[in-house]
Design goal:
Layout lengths: L6 E6 L5 H12 L2 E4 H14 L3 E2 L2 E2 L1 H7 L5 E6 L4 E6 L2 E2 L7 H11 L2 H14 L5 E5 L2 H5 L5 E6 L2 H14 L6 H17 L12 E4 L5 H20 L1
Parallel strand pairs: 1-8, 1-9, 2-8, 9-10
Antiparallel strand pairs: 3-4, 5-6, 6-7
The chain binds 2'-deoxycytidine-5'-monophosphate.
């Protein structure tokens, strides 16, 4: 594969397998993988712990004031081949995947000043290219000039089943009904918020992985990277 490093932006709905494609693509290309959703989840966890969310309603001013006290960072664990998210030096990787965070993250990520701070951080991370970042606004706002933009989607029922199996494997006791509700609410807020709503960038390629295996979707993405890096070279 060509050496020219590019930026790969992967956006799409919740629980449709963005991180599976993004991680395997990054591994194959020797790129860094950044999960931008983890940053919004970290802010949400901080807000929950510090009483800055009341009955699902974030205290916007309080959260914005607290942004300077949140130091978010990532490290790659070569043993488990997993990215770990840290908040002020604490490993929060497991906690940010819990349902309580999932249930509160969409309203927190709709706060304009929170988005501004996260986008600055994300752009900083992509400065030297060679990065795969997944999220909701990566191809539209964070890296509008990304060489490859992928917009992922999958049947909502299949997404709910995947999420269910993932959470049950982690020991959470939860019903399919709660998961369907959470996915539906997040889709709605993500697409309808004023600030950087989830939408497909005009130049993004659509990947519907409802009936694709992880290997098939990785191959699809590798083929797209090849087309682009080969074009770059000519
Ligand atoms: O990808 P995820 O489900 O971990 O993301 C968690 C939430 O963060 C999701 O509900 C929407 C928000 N998000 C966002 O607004 N912008 C991003 N670039 C990534 C995530």
């Amino acid at each position: 594969m060509a050496n020219k490093k590019i930026v790969i932006a992967i956006d799409g709905f919740s629980s449709c397998g963005k991180s599976t494609v993004a991680k395997s693509l990054a591994r194959r290309l020797g790129y860094a993988y950044i999960d931008s959703g983890a940053m919004y989840r970290a802010v949400t966890l901080f807000a929950l712990r510090n009483n800055l969310i009341h009955n699902g309603k974030p205290d916007k001013e309080g959260i914005i004031r607290a942004l300077g006290r949140m130091q978010i960072s990532f490290s790659f664990d070569p043993e488990t081949e997993k990215n770990i998210t840290f908040l002020n030096g604490e490993n929060i990787e497991n906690e940010i995947r819990r349902l309580e965070v999932s249930e509160n993250v969409s309203p927190v990520s709709a706060i304009a000043d929170v988005r501004r701070a996260m986008v600055d951080f994300q752009r900083e991370m992509g400065r030297s290219k060679g990065i795969v970042m997944d999220g909701r606004d990566i191809g539209t706002v964070v890296f509008p000039d990304a060489e490859l933009k992928i917009f992922m989607t999958a049947d909502p029922e299949i997404r709910a089943q995947r999420r269910y199996l993932e959470l049950v494997a982690k020991g959470e006791s939860i019903s399919m009904e709660e998961i369907r509700k959470n996915i539906g609410q997040r889709d709605f807020i993500d697409q309808n918020r004023k600030e950087s709503p989830l939408r497909k960038a005009d130049d993004a390629l659509v990947l519907d992985n409802s009936y694709l295996t992880p290997d098939q979707q990785l191959q699809w993405a590798i083929d797209r990277v090849k087309e682009i890096t080969e074009n770059h070279e000519s």
